[in-house]
Specification:
The complex is a heterodimer of chains A (226) and B (339). By secondary structure, chain A is of the alpha/beta class. Chain A has seven helices and ten strands. By secondary structure, chain B is mostly helical. Chain B folds into two domains: 166 residues, no CATH class; 171 residues. Helices cover 78% and strands 0% of the residues of chain B. In chain B, α2 packs parallel to α5 and α8 packs parallel to α10. The longest helix of chain B has 39 residues. The termini of chain B are far apart. Classes of the chains: A alpha/beta (226), B mainly alpha (339). The interface between A and B is medium-sized, with 18 and 11 residues.
Chain lengths: 226, 339
């Protein structure tokens, strides 16, 4: 592909410290994610997939290197500027869902639209439509604490998609889904890609690896891309 | 030393806190000037950027503390006047030793620099790049010694106040010349008053013009106009507003305006003038520094907010200043206070 990448990592490294020693979690990672592309990052637990996604999503800062989004180095923006970009352009599915306990499913889904003041009217209809699409439309008013793991995952996915992001970063999106749901999810993602969304999936689930729509596969081992 | 006097203690704590925060800002600023390579994304550069971000937040807090210190200087002078025999207002406290006026002057100047620094930090928060990193580093380095000097001179002033001697009251010093040369004072009074009215109007006009069209040149002109009007505004407060507040032509003390019997009019009046200059100068300095791509993009919105604030502050200052004059005109069917 020759078009401008939707998201790029340039020589991204991440070192963490436990107070006594420093450990390099990511080592000079460079990758491009183009519009309409679905990229799979494979790797065993502890290989750095979640850290990489957090850095690409602007939630974590690299120790060195840069993350570029739409011609702008978002890793060097200030916190509030990075948060604006993240809200506007990136949808993120956390491995542990990151839902707010005690809030309803609908409120959780609408949460990313609250700071920019867009959580009303059309957004509510869109949230309901997304929940219907994911097969949990009937749970809109339920408290998330009463949901199963698979249902929570789908709520988190609806929340990642509510703002119509250009980029979707999904951390183990099928971990709590049965096979038919997992295949349905991959089909939905393929449809989003057709519409121009750039999707990066971090997973070690073979069902994801088998999906035909995956354009490229990268292997992350011990913080390095193979 | 009088550090056990609550107002002295509070003022000195504010000064030390401010100087310490600015000192940290200066250290990080020096590191930025020596080591920063904005184009690089190395570990050292990114770490430096994060340190500078932290320093910027601390310096912001220090700048607010410096403005608070200015208020504290005035408050301390006013409140301590009750403890010094003969001092009827803050004038007696400031005038009691040779450091008082120097300290107040330095605090005002450092407060003004801190105010401008706050404006630049506000602009920097809206800039999506590191265009202002070096100018801010220079400013952090420049303000640190000024804040230290302010701390030392303030300590000299407040620490050497002698509560056992009889101080001069403002009326014995400031009213003297007035009584002896009533005709002479008419000239400066009229010049200051008309200068403040016309200059204030001009400052409002240029600020509104710059608000409408936030071009760098216009914003600079509005800022410089604000600075030029200050001596006239201060002169008008002393020579026109203060006598009208007390309905005594010889009453030329600005410190009396901070007292309860003057309805504390000095605080909003001087505060509005000070803020108008800070916003005006902040806009002007930002205009001069907005040469980079990212800063130029952020400048118009920033300039508009500062210009509308500047115009509002001048309008408030003019209204507050006109109030006692207007009230006197109503109560004395048009007769002049100065005849």
């Amino acid at each position: 592909m020759t078009q401008v990448p939707a998201l790029s990592a340039k020589d991204v490294s991440k070192r963490v410290s436990d107070g006594r020693s420093r450990r390099e979690v990511l080592k000079r990672i460079s990758l491009d994610l183009h519009p309409g592309e679905m990229l799979l990052v494979r790797g065993p637990s502890g290989s750095g997939k979640t850290t990489l996604l957090a850095i690409l999503g602007g939630m974590l800062l690299p120790t060195s290197g840069e993350v570029w989004l739409g011609g702008e180095a978002i890793s060097r923006l200030r916190d509030h500027q990075r948060a604006e970009v993240r809200r506007a352009k990136i949808g993120f599915l956390f491995q542990d869902f990151g839902l707010i306990e005690g809030m309803t499913v609908l409120d959780n889904v609408l949460l990313p639209l609250v700071p920019p003041g867009r959580a009303e009217g059309a957004a509510v209809s869109r949230a309901r439509s997304l929940l219907d699409q994911l097969g949990i439309g009937g749970l809109a008013r339920a408290n998330v604490t009463s949901l199963s793991g698979g249902e929570r995952q789908r709520v988190a996915l609806a929340r990642a998609r509510i703002g119509g992001p250009e980029i979707l970063l999904l951390d183990e999106p099928t971990a709590h889904l049965d096979t038919s749901r997992a295949e349905g999810l991959m089909a939905d993602l393929a449809e989003l890609c057709e519409k121009g969304a750039a999707i990066l999936v971090a997973s070690h689930d073979a069902r994801v690896d088998r999906a035909e729509r995956i354009d490229r596969r990268l292997d992350l081992n011990d913080g390095m891309l193979a | 030393m009088n550090v056990l006097e609550p107002w002295v203690l509070v003022r000195m704590v504010a000064a030390v806190v401010t100087a310490s925060l600015f000192a940290y800002g200066a250290v990080v600023g020096a590191r930025v000037l020596r080591h920063a390579h904005v184009e690089a994304a190395t570990e050292g550069q990114l770490s430096l950027e994060r340190h500078f971000e932290l320093a910027g937040n601390l310096v912001r807090f220090g700048a607010v503390a410096q403005l608070f210190s200015l208020l504290l200087s005035v408050l301390a002078a006013d409140r301590l006047s009750g403890a010094i025999q003969g001092a009827m207002c803050g004038y007696g406290v400031v005038h009691q030793n040779r450091w008082g006026w120097i300290s107040l002057g330095i605090t005002v100047v450092v407060g003004l620099i801190a105010g401008v620094l706050l404006q630049l930090l506000a602009l920097d928060r809206g800039v999506r790049g590191l265009d202002l990193m070096r100018p801010l580093a220079w400013l952090c380095i420049a303000i640190a010694p000024a804040a230290l000097l302010d701390t030392i001179v303030s300590a000299a002033w407040l620490g050497s106040l002698d509560f056992s001697v009889v101080a001069s009251c403002c009326s014995t010093t400031l009213g003297e010349g007035r009584r002896e040369g009533a005709v002479f004072w008419q000239g400066p009074r009229l010049l200051a008053t008309w200068g403040a009215v016309i200059g204030g109007g001009l400052a409002i006009g240029t600020a509104l013009l710059a608000f409408r069209t936030p071009a760098r040149g216009l914003v600079t002109v509005a800022g410089v106009t604000a600075l030029v009007v200050v001596p006239f505004a201060v002169g008008a407060v002393i020579l026109e507003v203060a006598p009208h507040v007390y309905e005594v032509p010889e009453h030329l003390c600005p410190f009396c305006l901070f007292k309860a019997d003057a309805f504390f009019i000095g605080y909003p009046l001087f505060g509005a003038v000070f803020l108008a200059v800070v916003w005006g100068l902040g806009g002007a300095v930002a205009a001069m520094l907005s040469t980079g791509e990212h800063t130029r993009a952020a400048f118009p919105a920033f300039a508009q907010s500062r210009m509308i604030r500047q115009a509002s502050a001048w309008a408030i200052a003019l209204l507050i200043g006109a109030l006692p004059v207007g009230l006197y005109a109503i109560s004395s069917p048009g007769a002049s206070l100065f005849r």
